[in-house]
Design a protein that fits this description.
Blueprint lengths: L2 H28 L5 H22 L2 H23 L2
Helix pairs in contact: 1-2, 2-3
């Protein structure tokens, strides 16, 4: 994959991921407990997307940030679905 293709993929991925994160934060800010799954899911998708972008960019700070966010949100999803 050449650099221009990487940048095109990164452009679409970062915008789609940013929209997911903003929507997730909106659900979180609503304070409605029933919307927690939407917050977790959208935030997880957004962080996964930004992790992909950071890997394409080879940006270690973003890889660390989004890698940790991935683990935190994954633990929240596991807790939501498997812990009573």
């Amino acid at each position: 994959m050449n650099n221009q293709q990487k940048e095109t993929i990164a452009w679409y991925l970062k915008w789609a991921s940013s929209v997911c994160l903003v929507l997730g934060m909106s659900f979180r800010a609503s304070g409605v407990p029933e919307l927690q799954i939407f917050d977790l899911s959208l935030s997880f998708v957004g962080v996964c997307g930004w992790l992909g972008v950071s890997l394409l960019w080879e940006d270690r700070a973003l890889i660390l940030l989004n890698g940790v966010g991935f683990l935190i949100l994954l633990s929240g999803l596991i807790k939501y679905f498997f812990v009573v």
